[in-house]
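Section 5.1 Outputs to date
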Amino acid sequence: MKKLTYTLFVAFWASVLTVAALHAMDKKDADKSNGDELPAYTWEEIEQHDSLDSCWKVIKGKVYDFTDYIPDHPTPPSVMERWCGKESTDAMRTKGYGRDHSAAAWAMIDDYLIGTVAED
């Protein structure tokens, strides 16, 4: 009986902490989601950052500078390089083989947000 009580106690608090973490991540997304304060970049500007030395990507209409992150990415740099200076939403959603990045990875990209794509 003690094991069951302990297991339920741990499961309950793990659930509470998970919900709290997800709520915090949603709030962070909502805070940055409007993009009003961020500069808008044209595709011509974005496409100039197409190398490992300066790697900007567009994901869901927002511009991210992943240059400093490339050495920490778990894949070889060439995997990220092919998406530098390009629309990369599909790459983020599929990793090139149909599997989405983790929720943690999606949350992490906000650290590299630098702007939005300028409307024509």
